[in-house]
Amino acid sequence: VEAHILEGLxxxxxxxxxxxxxxxxxxxxxxxxxxxPGSSFGPDPPLQEKLMVSLLQLAREGAIKYNTSxxxxxVLPDGQRLTTAAxxxxxAFGVPVNTDTMxxxxxxxxxxxxxxxxxxxxxxxxxxxxxxxxxxDPYLLANLNKTFVGLYSEEAKNISIRQLLHMxxxxxxxxxxxxxxxxxxxxxxDISPYEMISTSPKTFLCKPGSCLAYSSVGYVFLGxxxxxxxxxxxxxxxxxxxxxxxxxxxxxxxxxxxxxxxxSQTPNMTHQFTTVFNETAxxxxxxxMYNHSCLNGWTCGDLSASADNIAWMFHRIFxxxxxxxxxxxxxxxxEPLSKGWNVGLPYGxxxxxxxxxxxxGIIDDRVKLLGHGGQDYGSGAKVSGFSPYLNISFAVTVxxxxxxxxxxxxxxxxxxxxxEFVQFMCYFWNATLSIMSNYTLPQLxxxxxxPEVQQPGSSHSNSMRRQGHxxxxxxxxxxxxxx
Length: 483
Known about the structure:
Layout: H1 2-16, H2 20-35, H3 47-66, E1 69-75, E2 81-90, E3 95-96, E4 103-104, H4 110-122, H5 133-144, H6 148-151, H7 161-165, H8 176-185, H9 193-199, H10 216-229, H11 246-250, E5 255-257, E6 273-278, E7 283-288, E8 303-305, H12 307-319, H13 325-331, E9 335-336, E10 346-347, E11 352-354, E12 369-371, E13 374-375, E14 380-387, E15 392-398, H14 410-436, H15 451-454, E16 463-466, E17 476-480
Helix pairs in contact: 1-2, 2-3, 3-14, 4-10
């Protein structure tokens, strides 16, 4: 208990200090207790203890530099779970994040939906090559008065479960402008799956099966397929957690699917901050989304979880055969996205491949991760998955995807932070690879990280711009926190 109190006090004082030199000194003092001889982190500690010291120092450094908070979760091949956290998540009261805090992580939901579908296939109840229309039409007719084909066209008649999973159905993604405006500026509005479907573009990005284009809407339809097989009367009566075996659910206490209402109504939920530009007033506001709707895309983006629980999910998927080996192999047959968001990202079925370049400029298969990133309007988990070379699972979560620094030259600083901050998450994986391979693997070039890590945007863009004529005055940076 005393150690947790000391840890919390260290984090609060580190974040609140204005002078960067004193911040560095306090960071060193706070880390020293764990590094002193005779403690559990004494001379020549085991690799996992070295790793936890390194990751905690990285998390504290990032928390100070970007004024945000991090969690890191790792599962070793034998199932040992390692986790750490640093930074302030509640800026109104200076409350630090802890390893059990739940963080909305957006598209990390998609592997859960994919696993649920694979269970149905394993059980012989569903074929990957069946058309999706007949499975979802009862829900669509009852709520939108249209069938799947009626929403799109006859061209949609043969879109299959496999194509939705693999992002090659040709369907466009949801309307980003509508969803962002409602999520940020209408905080009490829950965007139902039917609203997400009805407001999404109905034109095809390509002929079904002829291109790969990221579409969260496709995963909403897959959610309706799962609801049908669960005999759920409607979408919100389907328990997404049933995609996992019952014993696995007990191992994930900080892993929740939020079906509506503000994030604040869920115990142990973090504060998370999005960015709002007002180009007329020349302001950048870091807006606390704690009292906003936490339904961020049913079965495609509604998961809130700790980094530890996310890492455990990937450990169970890849190391304990919760679906058949044959179907798991199909899930990780990757092809690059060819249209829309993040062209070039290798996508499978509910999984994508993080391919990292080393400092020698080589894309080395030994350092890759198989998993899924995600972000909401504020928080996220850009890097999370399983290492087939080391047989370890990894996740890093953050409560503000782009950091929350303020400066008189805020626009330039913000744009610089967007790139630098998302690359910082690569450092956690680099440290993990180095230490757990006993320094036999090459260092990563985190300034040339994979598309999903490097690109500021995602299926949920974290920033929102309000347009208008701007005078040539300095940008002002403000916080909108929940008191």
